[in-house]
Design a protein that fits this description.
CATH topology: Pnp Oxidase, Chain A
Number of helices: 4
CATH superfamily: Electron Transport, Fmn-binding Protein, Chain A
Helix content: 10-25%
Structural class: alpha+beta
CATH class: Mainly Beta
Largest sheet: 9 strands, antiparallel
Bound molecules: flavin mononucleotide
Length: 173
């Protein structure tokens, strides 16, 4: 069998493209956290991907429920499906939430800044009058622990890669 590292190269190529290309499917990973009533999954926009650090970054509202969930249980999962390549990317990570870059926040379009204000996500809606609050702009930094790549080729191929050396091994699909 070929070197599973080739598959890891493709995974990172997709993740990197997801950051740069709004239309690439890796732009919208699903982030799964453990909530008080069980697992919760939702889409976020992928903002940065560093293979060297093994890190993915996302932005969110500091008052959104997922932030409290990750403080209580930092182990999260991320999921990407790339239809054109018939490639499923499943990732396990440790999430840390901190303040977002204020300069970046200031550079966002007004409509995007407005998402970081008003009623907390999931609570009763308010009149929508409050403008963007930089204190609500949060960075989710996901340090990857494991990447599981499943390619629906003929035959199907699946490989598992683990930090810190990311040596991969083929596993049964
Ligand atoms: C295409 C798409 C992109 C989204 N991007 C983000 C994002 O970058 N950050 C974010 O916090 N929520 C984003 N959301 C909203 C989340 O999916 C979710 O509804 C919201 O963050 C509240 O999640 P929570 O209640 O689990 O904290 C996006 C939703 C969609 C459908």
């Amino acid at each position: 069998m070929s070197d599973p590292r080739d598959l890891l190269d493709r995974v990172w190529s997709h993740l990197t493209r997801g950051v740069a290309d709004r239309r690439h499917p890796a732009r919208h990973p699903v982030l799964a956290t453990m909530g008080p009533d069980g697992p919760e999954a939702r889409i976020l926009v992928l903002r940065a991907a560093s293979r060297a650090e093994g890190v993915l970054e996302l932005h969110t509202d500091a008052l959104s429920p997922k932030v409290a969930q990750m403080a209580a249980e930092p182990r999260v999962a991320l999921h990407v499906w790339v239809p054109k390549d018939r490639l499923q990317i499943r990732m396990r990570a440790r999430a840390e939430v901190g303040p977002g870059d204020p300069a970046l926040f200031a550079s966002l379009p007004e409509a995007a800044r407005a998402n970081y204000g008003g009623a907390a996500p999931g609570s009763a809606p308010d009149d929508g009058g409050a403008g963007g609050d930089p204190a609500r702009f949060a960075l989710i930094r996901c340090t990857l622990l494991e990447i599981d790549a499943l390619e629906l080729s003929d035959p199907h191929r699946r490989a598992l890669f683990a930090a810190p050396d990311w040596q991969g091994r083929w596993i049964a699909p």
